[in-house]
Every structure is written in structure tokens, then in C-alpha cells.
Structure to design on (69 residues):
């Protein structure tokens, strides 16, 4: 999944963790390098580092106050 087109945008994504658990997350994509996506979790208010090949789906969120500075 090419997440680089969402850099600096808020997205909703479905992610599979190492244990095979699926989560749906609201994130702001900060950067993409190699297979790593750096993002800010908008629900937990914390930075996250995700493996790009574990992102199963991604769509932009509406711009209704979801972005962080």
C-alpha cells in the first residue's frame, strides 16, 4: 500500500499487528521511509511507527479539525 501520498494528511487505516490482530486507527501520516510509516495516532495522542506492508487499507479523513499542528 502506497501511504506516501498521504504525508501531512489525516487518514483512517486498517492495520495488522505482529500477533495478527486487526485495528482501525485514525492517524496523521508524518513520513514514509523504506517500509516504515511514521504517524501520529489521533485517538491516543501519541507517535507511532508502523510497517507499511502491514497497512491493509487507508483512506483520507475529512478535514474537520482532525489535523494536528
Amino acid at each position: 500500500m502506497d501511504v506516501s501520498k498521504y504525508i501531512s494528511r489525516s487518514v483512517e487505516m486498517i492495520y495488522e499487528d505482529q500477533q495478527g490482530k486487526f485495528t482501525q486507527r485514525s492517524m496523521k501520516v508524518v513520513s514514509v521511509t523504506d517500509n516504515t510509516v511514521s504517524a501520529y495516532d489521533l485517538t491516543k495522542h501519541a507517535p507511532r511507527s508502523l510497517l507499511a506492508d502491514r497497512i491493509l487499507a487507508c483512506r483520507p479523513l475529512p478535514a474537520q479539525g482532525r489535523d494536528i499542528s
User: Anything to note?
Assistant: Residues 37 and 50 are 5 Å apart (CA to CA). The chain is about 0% helix and 55% strand.
